[in-house]
Amino acid sequence: MKNRFFWPGLWPGLWPDRRAVRCAAALVAAVLMGGVQQPAWAGGTVVYDCQLKAYGSPSEQSFIPKTQRLTIDRDAGTAMVWDDIIELLTGKPVAVGVVEMGDKRINLGWTLHNVPTTGTSELHVSYEARLFVTRNRLTLRGYFHGYDNEFSGKGTCKVAK
C-alpha cells in the first residue's frame, strides 16, 4: 500500500510529471541567465552571409556565386540580394521578389537580364533561392531562359552582426 499522505500521492493529477518540472526549471534558468533571445527570423531586418558550393558543369558553376548576402526585411516583406555576379552586372544589390516568407523558410526569386557571354548573344538568368531560416541553410537554383540547362548550389549562412 502506498503512503497517500506525502506528495505526489496525496493529490494525484494535481502535480505535473517530472519531465514537465525539469523543462520548466530549464526554461526559467535560461531566462534568468539571459540565454533566451528573440530568433533572427522573428521580425525586422536580418542580413545573412552565405557560403555556397556549386554543382553542375564548370561553365554552369560559374553562374553560382561562392558567397551571397541576403537582406530580409520581414516587416516590409522585402528582400535584397548581393553577390559577385550581381556586382559585376549592376554594381549594387538587387531587390528580389519574395515568393513566400514563413517561420522556417523564405523563398526568393529574381532574374538577371542581358548577362554578357563569350558569344554574340546575351542571356537572361533566373534564380530561385530557398533560405531555411531555422537551419541557416541556403539552396540556390538557376536556369537560362530559352535553354534546358539548370544549375544549382547550396551552402550555409550566418547572420551578419
Question: Please, could you describe this protein's structure?
Answer:
By secondary structure, the chain is of the alpha+beta class. It has 2 domains: 1-37, no CATH class; 45-159, Beta Barrel (Lipocalin), CATH 2.40.128. 16% of the residues lie in helices and 45% in strands. The protein is built from 3 helices and 8 strands. An 8-stranded antiparallel barrel has the order 1-2-3-4-5-6-7-8. A hairpin with a 3-residue loop joins strand 4 (94-101) and strand 5. The longest helix is centred in the first third of the chain and has 15 residues, at 18-32. It is globular. The chain starts with 17 loop residues before the first helix and ends with a strand.
Keywords:
161 residues, alpha+beta, Lipocalin, 2 domains, eight-stranded antiparallel beta barrel, 3 helices, 16% helix, disordered N terminus
Please write the CATH class name of the largest domain.
Answer: Mainly Beta
N- to C-terminal separation?
61 Å
Radius of gyration: 24 Å
The quaternary state of the protein chains shown equals: single chain
Secondary structure tally, helices: 3
Structural class, by secondary structure, is alpha+beta
Secondary structure tally: strands: 8
The overall pLDDT average reads 79
The amount of beta strand, in percent, is over 45%
The low-pLDDT segments are 3-11, 23-41
Strand count, sense and barrel status of the largest sheet are: 8 strands, antiparallel, barrel
Helix and strand succession? HEHEEHEEEEE
- The backbone outline, from C-alpha atoms, is globular
> Percent range for helical residues?
10-25%
Strand order of the largest sheet: 1-2-3-4-5-6-7-8
Which fold name corresponds to the CATH topology of the largest domain? Lipocalin
